[in-house]
Design a protein that fits this description.
Elements lengths: L1 E6 L8 H13 L6 E3 L11 H7 L6 H13 L2 E10 L5 E8 L5 E6 L10 H4 L8 E3 L4 E4 L8 H9 L4 E5 L7 H15 L2 E5 L4 E2 L2 E2 L5 E3 L5 E4 L5 E6 L3 H9 L16
Parallel strand pairs: 1-2, 2-3, 7-8, 8-9
Antiparallel strand pairs: 1-14, 3-4, 4-5, 6-7, 9-12, 10-11, 12-13
This protein binds the ligand NC(=O)CCC(=O)C(=O)O.
The site of the ligand NC(=O)CCC(=O)C(=O)O has 11 residues, from loops.
Pfam family, one: CN_hydrolase
Family: Belongs to the carbon-nitrogen hydrolase superfamily. NIT1/NIT2 family.
InterPro entries: C-N_Hydrolase, C-N_Hydrolase_sf, UPF0012_CS
Length: 264
């Protein structure tokens, strides 16, 4: 399989409309790839909390329309990153859109773990409740978003649902870049799965972004890693490696479920 991770620069000097047009064109340029991945909240920036409300869209808003067309023009599976979604009851969600090569929506995922503790996304957005996987011709993809990467139980849930490739769009800050690469490798090793993690470049809301999108194989080897600037990271990988890794080193079979609480 060939995947392209488009590490978009999200800077304040560019309007959302311009970035949306530019991103659609970058997706079209990936014709021939099997899967294209965009980052989290690339229209506004993941830390531009004050813009979430004004830039929010219904699920089938302008970003959906532009990305559905770009996916079908390029003939690729497109994880179009996430948008600030305004649901019909007014609640905001950090919602990922995943399109089939036909341009039809294959799945959407509302981020479960919201970042910010008692500020930002954590108070402005609602929490998703559903785990989401998508069957591609050669692999089953499980999706998660940015801060979700810190919560291994979510990824175990995706593996239990059949995931072999874990796709994580993000807007991860430079100051915690070491966590980003470490956690991407940890999720790959413990789940014996590919991890495709696509971040943003640039600086928005005063927060320099880490970039360093990364692709890790089921043994924890880094297949490709981007630098800090806008970049398209292209990688070829063999989805069959998940089954062979799980057969040859069958650690997932040794899971002990329902461990008792510690004795006091
Ligand atoms: N947008 C996010 O979820 C940021 C997460 C983050 O900065 C961290 O986990 O550290």
């Amino acid at each position: 399989m060939r995947a392209s991770l488009i590490q978009i620069a999200v800077d304040e000097g560019e309007s959302v409309d311009s970035r949306r047009r530019r991103t659609a064109s970058l997706v079209r340029d990936q014709a021939g790839a099997d899967l294209v991945v965009l980052p989290e909240l690339w229209t506004t920036g993941a830390f531009a909390f004050e813009e979430f409300g004004s830039a929010a869209e219904p699920l089938q808003g302008p970003t959906y329309e532009a990305m559905a067309k770009a996916a079908s023009d390029a003939g690729v599976w497109l994880h179009a990153g996430s948008i600030p979604e305004r649901a019909s009851d007014g609640t905001l969600y950090n919602t990922s859109l995943f399109f089939a090569p036909s341009g039809d929506l294959a799945a959407s995922y509302r981020k479960i773990h919201r970042f910010g503790f008692d500020k930002g996304e954590a108070v402005l957005m609602g929490a998703g409740e559903d785990l989401v996987t998508v069957r591609l011709p050669d692999t089953t993809v499980g999706v998660a978003t940015c801060y979700d990467l810190r919560f291994p139980e979510l990824f175990r849930g995706l593996v239990d649902a059949g995931a072999e490739t874990l796709v994580v769009p993000a807007g991860w800050p430079e100051r915690r870049r070491a966590h980003w690469t470490l956690l991407a490798q940890a999720r790959a090793v413990e789940n014996q799965a590919f991890v495709l993690a696509c971040g943003t470049a640039g600086t928005h809301a005063g927060v320099p972004q880490a970039g360093h999108s990364i692709v890790v194989d089921p043994w924890g080897a880094v297949l490709a890693e981007a630098g800090s600037d806008e970049e398209i990271l292209t990688v070829e990988f063999d989805p069959g490696k998940v089954a062979t890794t799980r057969e040859q080193f069958p650690a997932l079979k040794d899971r002990v479920l329902g461990l008792p609480a510690p004795r006091r």
